[in-house]
Amino acid sequence: MIVSPSLLSADFANLARDIEMCNASDAAMLHCDVMDGVFVPNISFGFPVIKAISRITTKPLDVHLMIVNPQNYIGAVRDCGAAIMNVHQEACIHLDRTIQAIKAAGMKAAVTLNPSTPVAMLEDVIADLDMVLLMSVNPGFGGQKFIENTYKKVARLKQLISDSGSKALIEVDGGVNLDNAPALAHAGVDVLVAGSAIFAAENPKDVIAKLACI
Ligand code: DX5
Ligand code: ZN
Q1: Helices (H) and strands (E) in the chain, counts
Q2: Smaller CB count within 10 Å for the chain: N or C?
Q3: 36 belongs to the catalytic site
Q4: What's this model's pTM, rounded to 2 decimal places?
Q5: What is the pLDDT of residues 43-61, one digit of tens each?
Q6: Is-contact 145 175, C-beta < 8 A?
Q7: Domain 2-212 classification at class level
Q8: Which of 28, 46, 29 is nearest to 37 (CA)?
Q9: Active site includes 179?
């Protein structure tokens, strides 16, 4: 299992310490949640912080943009060191153009779906995607309860990916923990994002190791 710890739940007063813990862990990437207070009812952190994170992390940055008009920030996201740029389908009027621009900028392109957005919305772009992120909570906050309908969505997405011959990975974000991770893996998830399950744990590195060997 590919594990992408969400820094939203890290201790921002000790961010370097938490990033170094991730460096020394089995995490395969690092998930950065950007929130603008418009697309979601919360504000997190932005590009200067991600740039600082990129200077000390040894893991590829998986940047999840919960913002309106993400197409306006493709250069900025690339310049702050992102390996993967995740945009919400609901935030992109010209999703195909945005996906092509992300790839032309040299990043992997991922599209995120809110819990209420059907997988079918990606039918005509799935072949071009490196990853699809299914939100398993309504985005905006860490520490929320996992939405059980996600399992059915993973199955539908898996079908869409195999029908289209796409190589897209399936990532799930929100309420992921050691209890639901085995069922998610069984459903076909490739990448687990976890925030509070990792950073609120007594031994975060151990939780990452357990998630990684599911
Ligand atoms: C929520 C964010 C998540 C969040 C997950 O809007 O996209 O990445 O950090 O946190 P947990 O794992 O605590 O639900
Ligand atoms: Zn996220």
Answers
A1: 8, 8
A2: C
A3: no
A4: 0.98
A5: 999 999 999 999 999 999 9
A6: yes
A7: alpha beta
A8: 46
A9: no
